[in-house]
Amino acid sequence: MTGTFAHLYGVFLVAQAAIKEFLKAGSGVIVNTASMYGLVGSPGSAAKAIHG
């Protein structure tokens, strides 16, 4: 499993689990955030770079 796939699949699994709870509760919100540095990189920010 590549790093990029693992990150995306993790977001999917969490959203899938949350939706079940939202349906029980009658409402809910999912907010996914990301840094632009995940795509373009930045000097000194190697920890944010994902290479699949």
Explain what you see.
This is D-beta-hydroxybutyrate dehydrogenase. It comes from Halalkalibacter wakoensis JCM 9140. It holds the Pfam family adh_short. With 52 residues, the chain is mainly α. It has one domain. The protein is 52% helix and 0% strand. It contains two helices and no strands. It has helices spanning 3-25, 37-40. The longest helix is centred in the first third of the chain and has 23 residues, at 3-25. The radius of gyration is 15 Å and the shape is elongated. The chain starts with a helix and ends in a 12-residue tail after the last helix. The model has no long low-confidence stretch (mean pLDDT 78).
Q: Write the element-wise H/E pattern from the N-terminal end onward.
A: HH
Radius of gyration: 15 Å
Structural class: mainly alpha
Mean pLDDT, to the nearest integer, reads 78
Overall geometric form? elongated
Determine the fraction of residues in helical runs and give it as a percent range: 40-55%
InterPro entries: NAD(P)-bd_dom_sf, SDR_fam
Protein name: D-beta-hydroxybutyrate dehydrogenase
